[in-house]
Amino acid sequence: MVNILAPNGMDQSREFNRGARRGRREEVLCGEKGYLTIAQNDHNLLSMFDITQFIRQEVQGCAPCAHGGGIAEYTDADQPVIDFSANLNPMGMPDVPTAIREIGGIFHYPDNNYPGLRAVSADFVEAYSGTNSTTRITAENIVPVNGSSELIRLFAETVIERGDRVIIPAPTFDEYAFQCRLFGADVQYQDYSKILELSSDQISDASTVFLCNPNNPTGDLIAGDDVRRLSDRCSDAETFLFVDEAFIELSDPAQSVAHAVFDSDFVVVSRSLTKVFAVPGLRLGFGIASTRVAELLNHARLVWNVGAPAEAIGRELMGACMKGDYLKRSISLIRKEREYLMEAFRSRGFSLHESAVNFILVDISSTGMDSQEMVDRMAGNGILIRDCATFQGLDRRHVRVAVRTREENQMLMRAIDAVTGVG
């Protein structure tokens, strides 16, 4: 059983509740009128709990600042609107190529609520969710961000306080640890292959558990049902689970746990349009959370954090994708070319980590080179690969290669042969 503060006790200090979460007592008192006791697995009742007690105090009372430049709110007005609320150069922009002038929306501030972008993002998630649930992700569940890295920072500055313990698998994307340390977190690493085996004490002692699924740089994909069980355990312990699904559309979108946000305020899911649409220069992504947590994150994020060009392009990309078979063809290509590359590497004596996505972790021990030498030699042959020595839990025996087209993959292997002589 978990004993949750009743509404009359919501004024208890957040520090008390953090201590209760870490110390995990059987009963949490809430003033003179007692306490509310509910079953751990009853997430409907758990949703009655005030999630703000697990949000930094500085964030709880914040609201977005008011600004001029709100012309986006009047796009459907019956008459033209001239924006005197924004203090811009009356000369307009300098002489530039026509293509730049034709980029939609750049002459006005975007609508900071991003209703169109959030709506199409929600539809995009649902289009590939693989569920028959009558409950659907909506715009109210979406947090638009300037790339998924911004969401990691936004989450950390909203939730993490000095001394909070966070659990991060290893190896994995380094930004989780970096951003949490900026806010004073105590980072505890756990072998990625054992992340589902966390003890109840480990989970309850942590503020947040991070999970990259599929994982970067290993390419591991944990089944959605297993991640849901982990999310249930985290929610029962009042510990956040941050699931980074930046590569899920390129692996198996049906394994997403986006719908877990309907069962718990403690689940936040991250998505990246950079990866799925191959537009890293665009910088666009979004978070998925319960409506309450999404509201808090939207209040805390930077105003106008997504520029009008990125918003317009993102909406078009997701819309076009949902109208065709782009993702189906992408996944098919990745599977075919991944198998080609894995066979090519293995035939040359390399050890590989099994991958479920569009990159492969390669052990280069058999070459007699370390990762830095391999990277330098490959660059000399016109091919850039990722040195994985910077990942927690890996070393100079590992590099990562992307899965590209057959012609490009053949060029990769020719360069491998040139620098190793093993082909």
Provide an overview of this structure:
The longest helix is centred in the C-terminal third of the chain and has 22 residues, at 326-347. The protein has helices at residues 14-23, 43-46, 57-60, 98-101, 115-127, 148-159, 175-182, 200-204, 224-236, 273-276, 291-300, 308-323, 326-347, 371-380, 406-420; strands spanning 2-4, 36-38, 142-145, 165-170, 186-191, 208-212, 240-244, 267-272, 285-288, 351-352, 359-363, 386-387, 398-402. The protein is built from 15 helices and 13 strands. The strands form three sheets. It has a seven-stranded mixed beta sheet with strand order 3-9-8-7-6-4-5, with helices on both faces. A four-stranded antiparallel beta sheet has the order 10-11-13-12, covered by helices on one side. Strands 1-2 form a two-stranded antiparallel sheet. It is of the alpha/beta class and 423 residues long.
- Overall structural class, as computed from helix and strand content, comes to alpha/beta
**Low-confidence stretches at least 5 residues in length (pLDDT < 50)?**
1-17, 20-41
CATH superfamily of the largest domain: Type I PLP-dependent aspartate aminotransferase-like (Major domain)
**What is the beta-strand fraction?**
5-15%
- Mean pLDDT, to the nearest integer, reads 84
Widest sheet, order of strands: 3-9-8-7-6-4-5
Q: Using the CA coordinates, give the radius of gyration.
A: 24 Å
Using the coordinates above, name the CATH class of the largest domain.
Answer: Alpha Beta
- CATH architecture label of the largest domain: 3-Layer(aba) Sandwich
Q: Topology as H/E string? A: EHEHHHHEHEHEHEHEEHEHHHEEHEEH
Judging from the principal axes of the Cα atoms, what is the shape? globular
What does the largest sheet look like?
A: 7 strands, mixed
User: In which range does the helix fraction lie?
Assistant: 25-40%
Number of helices: 15
Oligomer: single chain
Here the CATH topology of the largest domain equals Aspartate Aminotransferase, domain 2
What number of domains? 3
Kindly report how far apart the N and C termini lie: 61 Å
Q: Give the total of beta strands.
A: 13
